[in-house]
Design a protein that fits this description.
single chain; alpha/beta; Glycerol-3-phosphate (1)-acyltransferase; 11 helices; 7 strands; globular; acyltransferase; EC 2.3.1.51
Length: about 250
């Protein structure tokens, strides 16, 4: 437990230390045609995320970076744990915002950085507010700012995926941007597996082939969600595990 407290204190110190660059970033954010977004505004959240993950003793391996695009995209990922967001911020290598639950918007300093990253906050208990947030996310994508969505809606707290909700994919289909499925494995071991105790892990992120608008234009929303979920399950090795289980049952 002392290690967990230390990590939280360390993270809080880094966040408080970002106040000065936050003020500079806010000024840059207000400028027209701001070209410092990629370099300066995203730099601090990325470095803070890297430092926190490293301090836990966790290593991060990213495969498929060559599949990243130099254009706005919707990253669709499974959601194992709280550290998924830090893994994306620190190790994807591209500026991203998030579709996040409204509770995160209550965190001082952090919420301001998230606003600068063009994050949107959803209240799942308020349908009207949720639609407004999704529409804002669509506009952010059209304006050139990539977003990350976790379509399971909540943390799986393990390697098995919950069903992907198709409604969140309207972000891509309405903005007409590519979708990049990303699998994350190992983050749940950092916090959720230990019932709130932080521990070291090994995170593996796999960036899969982009799905372009021409590829998904004829798919129904449910079909698209299933396609992305199968892609992520395959990169996690879950399809192979399920196939082996079926074979074992047939043999027995």
């Amino acid at each position: 437990m002392l290690f967990t407290i230390f990590i939280y204190l360390y993270a809080a110190t880094l966040v408080i230390g970002s106040l000065v660059p936050l003020q500079k970033a806010k000024r840059q954010f207000k400028l027209p045609n701001n070209h410092l977004y990629n370099e300066e505004i995203f730099h601090i959240p990325s470095k803070v995320s890297q430092k926190v993950i490293k301090r836990t003793g966790t290593t991060v391996h990213v495969n498929g970076k060559e599949k990243l695009l130099d254009e706005p995209v919707l990253y669709v990922a499974n959601h194992q744990g709280l550290f998924d967001i830090l893994a994306f911020l620190g190790h994807l290598g591209k500026p991203v915002g998030f579709v996040a639950k409204k509770e995160i918007n209550k965190l001082p300093i952090i919420r301001k950085w998230m606003e600068l990253l063009y994050c949107v906050f959803i209240d799942r208990n308020d349908r009207r507010q949720s639609m407004k947030a999704i529409n804002q996310g669509i506009e952010n994508l059209k304006a050139g700012h990539s977003l990350v969505i976790f379509p399971e809606g909540t943390r799986s707290r393990g390697s098995i995926l919950n069903e992907f909700k198709s409604g969140s994919l309207r972000l891509a289909t309405k903005a007409n941007v590519p979708i990049i499925p990303v699998s994350i494995d190992g983050t749940y071991k950092m916090l959720e597996e230990g019932n709130g105790r932080i521990q070291a892990s090994e995170i593996k992120m796999t960036i899969n082939d982009p799905i372009y608008p021409d590829d998904y234009k004829d798919l129904k929303s449910g079909e698209l969600a299933s396609l992305i979920q199968r892609t992520i399950e395959k990169s996690l090795g879950l399809e192979q595990e399920e196939s082996m289980k079926v074979e074992m049952i047939e043999i027995s």
